[in-house]
Recover the amino acids of this structure.
């Protein structure tokens, strides 16, 4: 079983800097975070996390996956997971030899970082699953979501399927009903961040969510994994998060008390402190 941490710390009082942010970068295996957004989101969603990490002298790269954020592709044209994740895999491929990063994946980004872990295990120091799909070998993101979906499930109500190839063909993308966004993804988040998301989110390509991951113990299984739970999450329930954790336990589990599905908005300081703590965990921790 993984070590389960207590609830994540709250925000710092004004004018005080927590000791968790006092980082000796020379003692770290890497001080480079790579942030991977969830379905419909983009690199823009990490703006608070980027600022907080950079203030502590971390290097931060936030990726726009294909058809997301400011990436020019149309989500309806994306036919497989490899195509969707290409901006991340291209980035990892170009890392200098011996350089490692900490990957953080949110939501559908969990499947994306798992895909990258299988390809580039030696380039990834640690992998952090944040309110994310943490899948097992042979499982798809849609498999994971369908396991929790009931007839009154908010996620199911919010989904709007897009059929760019015509209604007699499979869906090409999934959009989310703007009127349900706050309740589904941002029920604890500031209104300004909900407004940002409502004008910035894009459709989620359907085919990558259907694709079953091929994950091996020799590659994916060698990367240190951590999970950050979000107990007020209406998109991936805490019960479902814990079932994924039980099915394939990571090294350690953290809990962000009071966090919704978008903790980079609802609990940015507490999320930041957990990321710092994970960066400091040595192999003997």
């Amino acid at each position: 079983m993984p070590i389960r941490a207590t609830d994540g710390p709250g925000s710092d009082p004004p004018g005080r800097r927590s000791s968790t942010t006092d980082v000796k970068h020379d003692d770290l295996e890497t001080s480079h975070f790579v942030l991977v957004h969830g379905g419909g989101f983009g690199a823009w969603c990490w703006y608070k996390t980027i600022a907080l990490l950079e203030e502590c002298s971390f290097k931060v790269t936030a990726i726009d996956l294909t058809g997301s954020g400011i990436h020019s592709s149309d989500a309806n044209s994306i036919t497989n997971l490899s195509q969707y994740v290409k901006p991340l895999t291209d980035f990892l491929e170009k890392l200098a030899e011996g350089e490692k990063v900490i990957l953080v994946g949110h939501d559908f980004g969990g499947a994306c970082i798992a895909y990258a872990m299988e390809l580039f295990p030696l380039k990834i120091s640690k992998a952090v699953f944040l309110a994310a799909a943490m899948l097992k070998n042979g499982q798809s993101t849609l498999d994971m979501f369908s396991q929790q979906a009931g007839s009154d499930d908010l996620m199911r109500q919010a989904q709007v399927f897009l059929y760019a190839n015509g209604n007699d063909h499979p869906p090409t993308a999934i959009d989310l009903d703007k009127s349900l966004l706050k309740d589904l993804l941002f029920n604890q988040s500031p209104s300004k961040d909900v407004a940002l998301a409502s004008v910035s989110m894009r459709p989620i390509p359907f085919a990558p969510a259907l694709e079953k991951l091929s994950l091996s113990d020799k590659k994916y299984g060698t990367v240190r994994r951590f999970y950050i739970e979000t107990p007020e999450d209406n998109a991936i329930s805490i019960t479902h998060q814990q079932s994924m954790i039980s099915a394939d336990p990571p090294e350690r589990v953290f809990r962000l008390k009071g966090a919704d599905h978008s903790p980079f908005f609802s609990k940015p300081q507490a999320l930041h402190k957990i990321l710092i703590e994970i960066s400091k965990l040595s192999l003997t921790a």
User: Anything to note?
Assistant: The chain is about 35% helix and 15% strand. The two ends are 15 Å apart (CA to CA). The domain at 32-280 is CATH 3.40.50.1820 (Rossmann fold). The chain has one domain: 32-280.
